Amino acid sequence: MNSATTSAGDVLRFKVVLLGEGAVGKTSLVLRYVENKFNPKHLSTLQASFMTKKLNVAGTRVELNIWDTAGQERFHALGPIYYRDSQGALLVYDITDEDSFFKVKNWVKELRRMLGETVVLIIVGNKTDLNKDRRVALNTAMEYASSVNAVHFECSAKTNVGIEEIFLDLTKRMIERAKSSESGNKSSASGPGRNRNILVVDDNQLRPETKKGCC
Amino acid sequence: MSSSNVPFFDSVPVIAQLKSLVQVIFNDVKGARLTQENFSRTCIVVSQVRSMVELAAGDKLAARQTQLTFLRVGLRNGNAFINGVPVVGHIKGVIHYALDDKNGGSEAMKASSRTVGVIAGAVGGALIGGPAGAAAGGVGGGLAVDTLSTAIESAVNRRYSPSGTLALGTELVRNHSDAGAVFDAAGGFALTVALDGVGGALVGQGARLVATNNVPSAAAASMSALDHVGIALRVGSGVGSSTLAHFNQRDGRIRWRLAELNLLCRNGCGWYGTLKRNGLCGKCWRLKKIGSKQTHMSQLKFEKFQQKRRRISERRFQTVKDALGLESDDDQCHLRIIKHTHRRRYTEKFEVFLTDLSPSLATEISKQTEETIDMLFELQHYPTETLSEKVQKLFLDVSDIVKNYSENDSECSASEVDVVDRVEQYVCVLTYPILFCASEAEEKEETENLEWIDSIKWVKKEFITKQETPEFINHIEQAGQELMNLNAVRSAADKLACIVRCFIHLTAASTENRGSCSADDLFPTTVYAVLKANPPCLQANLDFVVKFGQPYQVSNGDSGYAYTTLDAAFTFLRNLEPSILEISQKEWDEQMSKGAEVVSEHIQ
């Protein structure tokens, strides 16, 4: 808990904002990610609306602060209050709901306009367990994502498919951006010859049962 | 019955009866009867009636006896009482001085000044707490002057010499040999306090009238309030003075006479004057005072009071801050007083913390902090953004200082976060009056916000995401209470802690019957709670936290999320319009007028 910047001491701190229409599963996504890894008592006092997650990626200690937002259309105008100063954004849509995908497109436009290229955008199609009702084709979404310099993932929070990869990729990209913007100002926190392989280690490293995923 | 030994309180209605009751309880039946007898002879009203009845019945001797008893007791014991009446007391003081009776003179003066203390206390009390506050203020004011006189007296005489209420209290402690004596002392104590209270309440009523009155003639109103008390006192004293003079001729011990002329205003306006105003009445004194520019403390206070009143009447609304008792006064003198009283209290706390650090570090931090505080007071009329920059710079500087020390000195255990926290707390509390909602524009905005939220309270139903179970309502109310508490704490960190506690309740409210809570639920619940509580100065509190709090706490972690959500909810409500609720303008207008009715009904 140090000073105001995103990097304090050895820990890189990132603000990630969750955007997307109501009921697309933003909260379930984060809950699945955080709760599967952590003892529920580590949940923040504000529970699922604000969560922190500590990671160790290739020797770089990272703390993710994940900010949930209200998805209802009437609260759309409040977006800027939430996404200012964020380094990453998860734009979530429901693959069975085309409208939610259009909503994501709106968010992308707005974020690029307001934050430029400094923010890592990840577009996530949720509810792959309902593939039979799919309304948004995987190709369409992927093409759109690459056209706006964003990354696309599909996952299922319900069946816990693809969740880890999303956050890992997001973290990796945010670290890269933070280091490239910082290089020249400061010597790299992780020192020379750092390992390019990504290793995710749970913060509670002494507890072997928590070591799973991409170790 | 020996008339010269009648205790003073036997003359006062109710108290005399109580005394005899106490005496009966203590098996002092004879004493009780004596008290009753004394009462009927010596009470101002009753004795006159009794002597009249006796006169009518042809019992001239008895009537004379009653009158004499009253006068003697009145004079002997009444000195203390009459001294307490401002006008009479001060005049009596002059007479004492004129007769070279310095002791008696200063005694009378002191007692009169004491009454002024009561009035001053009452005016203060009334502005804060209404009639009850005025009474309490009166008692407090009286006691304060007593304490002051006691201190002065004790210093002069080199021994403990209590004054006023304290003297009676001391007597109460010392005399506990018989029930009657204890009662006399206790009664004196109680009566002094009670009279202070009554006097205070009267003055307080006047002061309140003045404070809420929009008539431009402020001075006239305030003076008439004071004169109102004066009349009551003079009515009593006038009767006393003529009879006192009558008695003197017979007694031969005190050789002075009070004539009506002595009491009148020197200007000859026909009203009564006071010694404090050079024998002038309130109106003449003020006229004279405006001509000659004296710099007197009481005058400064009075002008400040007028100034404040004028401002209130110009604005024509009672601001939220006034209601909360927060001072927005830009009066230099006043702020210095605030600064110094706060400084003493918080400096100690801050210094205690600094002693745990290494001496050179503590000196450096203390120097930086004090310099910034002085600068803030100097720049108080600048926009808050400027002040905010200074405060934020201080946080960075202090953080750097601690960092450098920790790098150079391995034994330095100070955590920069901790030090900055303390500095923040100290600066916020000390300079709160000039940092928090200090401009009139901000105050006006606060009032408008309150009115606006009141007018859109009808949209509440739109934001209920859960059934209104008792638990839900309970959590919402507690969250609202935390929002209200924002005005009770002064440092940005404490305000943030309030907001976090508020959100713990809001989270609990939106998780009712569910395991977790997403922003989809939390946000509408927040909007609902803000609508329901409509806490005063919410915008000012949000601004204060972001400007004078530590940026890390405002934008990170639980506190950052809670702050942002509250900010967003309030922004949402302020910008609410029909299109957001997806209703037509007509429907909106209808609801607004209906909502206004509901509000006005509620107020009625």
TrEMBL record, chain A:
<keyword id="KW-0653">Protein transport</keyword>
<dbReference type="InterPro" id="IPR041833">
    <property type="entry name" value="Rab21"/>
</dbReference>
<keyword id="KW-0636">Prenylation</keyword>
<dbReference type="InterPro" id="IPR005225">
    <property type="entry name" value="Small_GTP-bd"/>
</dbReference>
<dbReference type="InterPro" id="IPR027417">
    <property type="entry name" value="P-loop_NTPase"/>
</dbReference>
<feature type="compositionally biased region" description="Low complexity">
    <location>
        <begin position="181"/>
        <end position="191"/>
    </location>
</feature>
<dbReference type="GO" id="GO:0015031">
    <property type="term" value="P:protein transport"/>
</dbReference>
<keyword id="KW-0342">GTP-binding</keyword>
<dbReference type="Pfam" id="PF00071">
    <property type="entry name" value="Ras"/>
</dbReference>
<keyword id="KW-0547">Nucleotide-binding</keyword>
<keyword id="KW-0813">Transport</keyword>
<comment type="similarity">
    <text>Belongs to the small GTPase superfamily. Rab family.</text>
</comment>
<keyword id="KW-0472">Membrane</keyword>
<dbReference type="GO" id="GO:0003924">
    <property type="term" value="F:GTPase activity"/>
</dbReference>
<protein>
    <recommendedName>
        <fullName>Ras-related protein Rab-21</fullName>
    </recommendedName>
</protein>
<dbReference type="GO" id="GO:0032482">
    <property type="term" value="P:Rab protein signal transduction"/>
</dbReference>
<keyword id="KW-0449">Lipoprotein</keyword>
<dbReference type="GO" id="GO:0012505">
    <property type="term" value="C:endomembrane system"/>
</dbReference>
<dbReference type="GO" id="GO:0005525">
    <property type="term" value="F:GTP binding"/>
</dbReference>
<dbReference type="InterPro" id="IPR001806">
    <property type="entry name" value="Small_GTPase"/>
</dbReference>
<feature type="region of interest" description="Disordered">
    <location>
        <begin position="179"/>
        <end position="200"/>
    </location>
</feature>
Automatic annotation (TrEMBL), chain B:
<keyword id="KW-0862">Zinc</keyword>
<dbReference type="InterPro" id="IPR003123">
    <property type="entry name" value="VPS9"/>
</dbReference>
<protein>
    <submittedName>
        <fullName>VPS9 domain-containing protein</fullName>
    </submittedName>
</protein>
<dbReference type="InterPro" id="IPR002653">
    <property type="entry name" value="Znf_A20"/>
</dbReference>
<dbReference type="GO" id="GO:0003677">
    <property type="term" value="F:DNA binding"/>
</dbReference>
<keyword id="KW-0863">Zinc-finger</keyword>
<feature type="domain" description="VPS9">
    <location>
        <begin position="443"/>
        <end position="582"/>
    </location>
</feature>
<keyword id="KW-0479">Metal-binding</keyword>
<dbReference type="GO" id="GO:0008270">
    <property type="term" value="F:zinc ion binding"/>
</dbReference>
<feature type="domain" description="A20-type">
    <location>
        <begin position="259"/>
        <end position="293"/>
    </location>
</feature>
<dbReference type="Pfam" id="PF02204">
    <property type="entry name" value="VPS9"/>
</dbReference>
<dbReference type="InterPro" id="IPR037191">
    <property type="entry name" value="VPS9_dom_sf"/>
</dbReference>
